[in-house]
Structures are given as structure tokens and as C-alpha cells.
Write a structure and sequence with these properties.
alpha+beta; 521 residues; metalloendopeptidase activity; 15 strands; 11-stranded antiparallel beta sheet; membrane; 13% strand; Glucose Permease (Domain IIA); transmembrane helix; 10 helices; transmembrane; M23ase_b-sheet_dom
Length: 521
């Protein structure tokens, strides 16, 4: 069922401002900063540098939670928002988050991935011919269950723009953040402190939402031992440890922020609906332990467009008692027949939104089309064999793909490095990155099993080395003299173009290997 969310009427100024800010999307203005890019390459266009000011709007996702916290205090008695019953993040947690935020901007791996998400949104926009999927027009191919058992809480995310995880970049548009809370909306006992194992959801099993084939995993990212707004400063991926599963030709689930070392699957494995794939953790960009879940149209996170997802067999309740609903609206779900402010069990497909507590209905796990037929079993066997071939082929392409990403990382360093250091220092930083990436690859090759190694080998070191060599070769007095920032911008764009081309090749290859009749609908 799908309902349009409407907040409770409130007369407080703080509540009205919160409603206005919820629908405000300043990241569209941030894109105007791209008009300044030509000034980095052509001195005659230096006047365009004024558009750099619009890049400040990219800070909005960091500012808006703090602003909401301030305004929430002014409207607390009203409980104007469906998430106001939750208690996630106090002043201490937000202070820790803001104090460690600069580490995100100096971590070149995270910075390059952030930039690639924005460039990838443009690729997805073209792929969908200027109209991203939404609940009104997207025809979901597969039946999905919740990726966990027990009762969890949606703390972030919705099919609705105003409560979405993050409307831009498009890859996370319909993503969800899930935690476990007590009846009072706390994610851990109030006296327990911020150790990760004190959070109710930490180390809980995470399940495959539908049958599928694993196409990508990462199990060796770093995890901070504490929540409370802190994440590991040396994280190597926004998602931390994650699993990506293909369920249909263009439907992939991504389950992120898992516990390092907890993954039970590898690329090429076929998984069953409800099978454990890992444990809920705190790796990657995470302020406290939670599960980040999203459905996407592409195997590569940075290039994907998020897809709206309706779950089967959901028991949902709305503890935010003052939230209200509009008339039901279409979107591939059944008609709303119950008031979502009360407990409701509905085996039809259900769109979720922030503020709900949800649980999978036991016994309603299988779709109504019955058990697998011999023909389906043959299809599954063929798909599993093809998936293994795909995984092997992907291993051969992974080094090139990682080299392309390494070029993006080197380009990001060359663009931002000259702000604080010299060209020579940038070259030295890139050289150090090459040595570090190569050394880490050697350590992993010796100390980790083949299943624990991230595909790509020395690709990252190769990409960084190419940019380092270009910075040295185009300096002052060289036959071809190019500014460091201009060179960095070109390297970033060239690396991303190669990454996107390889990603599109991979997407088309997986579409051909995955039988359309395997999707469970």
C-alpha cells in the first residue's frame, strides 16, 4: 500500500520552517558550480570562477540535520514529523560528526566516490532519457521481502521526496536506513554509551531480500569501534562492507555498512530469498550502526539510479501518532485498506517511509505463484553457471575498472591539493598513494584469502601512478605545461569516463546472462 505523508498541523514557527526545509532541494543549486569548471582549463574564462560559490550548497546534507535538531526543540511538543518519536543523535553525537567531517574531505577515496556519484547521476539521467524511475511509473520486476527478521525501524528514507534518504545524487533516492529501537525510540540503552555492540541492531543477521546472484562484495573495510557520530577516518568506501545482488535484468539490491568479516557470500554465488549474507554493522559513512538498503538499476553504485521498492508481507506501525496520511496513490502497490497509524498486517506490496516500525510477516515468505517448477530449476541452474562465468570475467576487468577509479582519486587530489600545498607536494602525495596502495595489495595478498581480496589487484595503484606521472611531466618548463588543477580535472573526467564505459559494458553483459523469467513477481 502507498500513502501520501502529511504532517500534523502545527502553529509553531519551528514546525512550519521544518516543513519548508524538508521540501527544499538546494543541491540543484550546487550543480551551478559546474559552470566554474571551464575556468580551470581556459584562463580567458576566469570570470566563471564566481560560480564556485554554488559549490557551498553541497554542504547542505551536513548542515540540515543540525538545523533540524535546533528546530525540533522548538516543536518537540507538537511531534509534527513522523520521525519525531525517534531519539537518534544528541548534541554530543552531532558535535562528534561535525568535528570529524573534515576527514571526509581529505580522504581521497571517499572524495572521489562522492564526486563519481554526482557524475554518475548525469549518466543515469541520460540512461533514463531525462526521467528517473518513480513509484508512479516504475514496474517492479521482483517480489522482495524485508532484508531482516524481527521488528526494525525506518529512520531514513521514503518513496516520497520530502522524506527521502537523499533526493540527490540519484543513486540513493529511494534508499532506506534501518535500525532496531526500543518502544521509546532509542537505538541503544540510554546508559550504555556509544560502543558499537551496545546498539540493538549491531551484529544482527542481514538477509537476501529475494533470490539472485551476488555480483559484488567488499568485506574488509574499516569499522569504528564507537558510534555516537563517529565513523572510521580511513574508510575506503562510502558503503563500508557491502553486498550487491542481482535479482532481475536491471534490479540490484545493495546492503551496506555490514560488519567486516561477516559476509557469507562471494561474487557468482546464487542466494535464496531470506538467506543470511552478512551482519549489520558500522563500516563506511555511518554515524551509528544501521543497515543501508537500496534497490538500484546498475551493478555499480556510483552509476546507478535508485529504484522505488515495495516489500511483500510487511507488518507496519506508525509510533509517530500525530502523523497523518493523504489519499492512497498508485505506484504498483495494492490499495490502502487500513489506517497506517495503527498496527496493520498486509501481505500486499507495501512502500515504506521514515518513522515506521516494520517486520516481515512469517509464513508469507513465498510469492503466491507456488513452488519452483522443473523448468524454473533448470533456469536457476543455467543462471548460476552463467553467474560464475560472469564473475570470472569481471575479475579480469576489475583491474582496469580499479585503475579508472584510481585515476579519479588522483584527479581529485590534483584538483584540491594546490589549494593548500604546492605542485611538487601534490606529486609526492600521489607517489605516496601509489606506494600505500601497492603495499596494501601485497599485505592483503599474503594475509587474506582469495575470497577476502577486493577484485582489481594493483588497479588503484596504477591509476594513481598515471596521474602522478602526468603531474610531474607537465610542470613548469615542460614541453606541455598544464596547470595542476586543470590536469586534475581532466584526469578525474577521463577516469570517470573509463569507469562509466566499463560499468555500462558490465550492466549489458549481466542483463544478457540473467534470464528475465527468473524474476519472482
Amino acid at each position: 500500500m502507498t500513502e501520501g505523508i502529511r504532517t500534523a498541523e502545527s502553529t509553531t514557527i519551528a514546525a512550519r520552517v521544518r516543513r519548508r526545509l524538508r521540501s527544499f532541494e538546494p543541491l540543484y543549486l550546487a550543480l551551478l558550480g559546474l559552470l566554474a569548471v571551464p575556468s580551470y582549463v581556459f584562463d580567458s574564462l576566469a570570470v566563471l570562477e564566481v560560480f564556485e560559490l554554488f559549490f557551498l550548497f553541497f554542504l547542505w546534507p551536513f548542515v540540515s540535520p543540525l538545523l533540524d535538531l535546533v528546530l525540533r526543540r522548538g516543536a518537540d511538543e507538537e511531534r509534527a514529523e513522523p520521525t519525531d518519536w525517534l531519539h537518534m543523535g544528541n548534541w554530543r553525537a552531532y558535535a562528534a560528526w561535525f568535528l570529524t567531517m573534515p576527514l571526509t574531505f581529505v580522504n581521497p577515496l571517499v572524495l572521489a566516490q562522492d564526486l563519481s556519484q554526482w557524475l554518475g547521476t548525469g549518466v543515469a539521467f541520460v540512461r533514463h532519457r531525462g526521467a528517473f524511475p518513480d513509484p508512479e511509473n516504475y514496474d517492479q520486476q521482483t517480489a522482495y521481502r524485508l532484508p531482516f527478521d524481527g521488528t526494525w525501524t525506518v529512520v531514513n528514507g521514503s518513496y516520497d521526496h520530502d522524506y527521502s534518504h537523499s533526493w540527490l545524487p540519484a543513486t540513493q533516492r529511494y534508499a532506506y536506513d534501518f535500525v532496531i529501537t526500543d518502544a521509546d525510540g532509542h537505538t541503544a540503552p540510554t546508559e550504555s554509551g556509544s560502543a558499537v555492540d551496545s546498539y540493538y541492531c549491531y551484529d544482527e543477521p542481514i538477509l537476501a531480500p529475494a533470490d539472485g546472484v551476488v555480483v559484488d562484495v567488499f568485506d574488509t573495510d574499516f569499522e569504528s569501534p564507537r558510534g555516537g557520530g563517529l565513523s572510521h577516518p580511513l574508510k575506503r568506501d562510502i558503503r563500508g562492507c557491502y553486498v550487491v545482488i542481482q535479482h532481475a535484468s536491471d534490479e540490484y539490491s545493495c546492503l551496506a555498512h555490514l560488519v567486516p568479516g561477516s559476509l557469507t557470500v562471494s561474487p557468482g554465488d546464487r542466494v535464496e530469498r531470506g538467506q543470511e549474507v552478512g551482519r549489520c554493522g558500522h563500516s563506511g559513512n555511518s554515524s551509528e550502526p544501521h543497515l543501508h538498503f537500496q534497490l538500484q538499476d546498475h551493478p555499480r553504485f556510483e552509476l546507478a539510479a535508485g529504484l522505488p521498492i515495495a516489500f511483500d508481507a510487511v507488518d507496519a506501525e506508525w509510533p509517530g501518532a500525530k502523523a497523518a496520511i493523504d489519499e492512497p496513490r498508485s505506484g504498483g502497490a495494492g490499495d490502502a485498506t487500513t489506517d497506517p497509524l495503527e498496527d496493520a498486517t498486509d501481505v500486499d506490496r507495501t512502500y515504506l517511509t521514515a518513522g515506521q516500525r516494520v517486520a516481515h510477516v512469517a509464513g508469507a515468505d513465498e510469492p503466491t505463484d507456488g513452488s519452483a517448477s522443473p523448468e524454473r530449476e533448470t533456469i536457476e541452474s543455467t543462471a548460476e553457471s552463467d553467474a560464475g562465468q560472469s564473475a570470472g570475467s569481471d575479475g579480469r576487468l576489475a583491474a582496469v575498472r580499479r585503475a579508472a577509479f584510481g585515476t579519479c582519486v588522483g584527479g581529485a587530489v590534483a584538483v584540491l591539493g594546490p589549494i593548500v600545498v604546492s605542485r611538487t607536494a601534490v606529486a609526492l602525495l600521489l607517489g605516496a598513494g601509489v606506494a600505500l596502495a601497492a603495499g596494501w595489495h601485497g599485505w592483503v595478498a599474503v594475509r587474506r584469502t582469495a575470497a577476502e581480496r577486493r577484485p582489481g589487484g594493483l588497479g588503484l595503484a596504477i591509476g594513481l601512478g598515471l596521474v602522478a606521472a602526468a603531474v610531474r611531466a607537465t610542470g613548469t618548463g615542460a614541453s606541455l605545461e598544464v596547470g595542476t588543477q586543470a590536469l586534475g580535472g581532466l584526469a578525474l573526467l577521463a577516469g570517470f569516463a573509463a569507469y562509466a564505459a566499463l560499468g555500462e559494458y558490465e550492466r549489458h553483459r549481466l542483463r544478457e546472462l540473467f534470464p528475465a523469467s527468473w524474476a519472482r513477481s
